Hints:
There is one protein chain. The protein is of the alpha/beta class and 277 residues long. 34% of the residues lie in helices and 19% in strands. It has 8 helices and 10 strands. Strands 2-3-6-4-7-8-9-10 form an 8-stranded mixed beta sheet. A hairpin with a 5-residue loop joins β2 (38-43) and β3 (49-55). α3 crosses α4 (142-150).
Amino acid sequence: MKVFLFLSLFLSQSCSHLFYQPSARHFYDPAQFNITYKDVWFDSTDGTKLHGWFFPTTKKAKGTIIQFHGNAQNISTHFLSLVWLVNEGYNLFTFDYRGYGKSQGSSSQEGLYQDAVAALKKGREFHLAHGQGHFIVYGQSLGGIVLLRALPDFEEKDEVSLLVLDSTFDSYQDIAFDKLKSRWFLWPFSPLAYLLVSDKYASDKFLNKIEQPTLVIVGDGDEVIPEKFGKQIYQNISAPKKWLWEIPGGGHIGVFHHNAVSFRKDFLRLLDKMSLD
């Protein structure tokens, strides 16, 4: 019994670390790259103070993008993957979940769900105040499952022009099971993932509620979130318009780094095509 309890505690802590690896360290300042931005403070739905950055485009606004970043570090690294869109006419709003960066609180499934709902509302405020156009929500890795769960509860979800799911998954239990199974010394205990990890705020049961045009991006070289998880989302999501990008040799959240020029152009073409539809 003591051995079982020890293993349960060890595996539970391991799975928690798998999902949340926050840092309070400030890695990069946009000012280092001569990028204009504004500090943003706003409340989560339970009153927790959250911090973010807003990057206004200097061009005629084509739309606004909300970034839901991955599980490690904070916005001071993650903004770099999407900030290039500011020079293409898109405003960018990125924020830190509770426990990340300057945001208060500690990370949990319920907490991040509350943060995501609040961020959708805050991002819409920026969208309405800064030129409107496309309203795009972009979930990366952990940010994908958090966004997918929050979006159906967002009152203005019908205003979303495009949902992007990049290198993500839809079940905490399934990805924990996959990670435990991939390590030979933890493989015998992998079924415990379904006992120790909660799927209360998973998004797999909400895919049939997603009606926004959806782009799913997977990389066949992604060792963090194997491409099978994204492909499963693509198959099960009920969006009438959906696209699957399979990136040859692509790593985790690597679409705009691997053959960056090509895929950046493809993404902009997709947005331009949506304007004509």
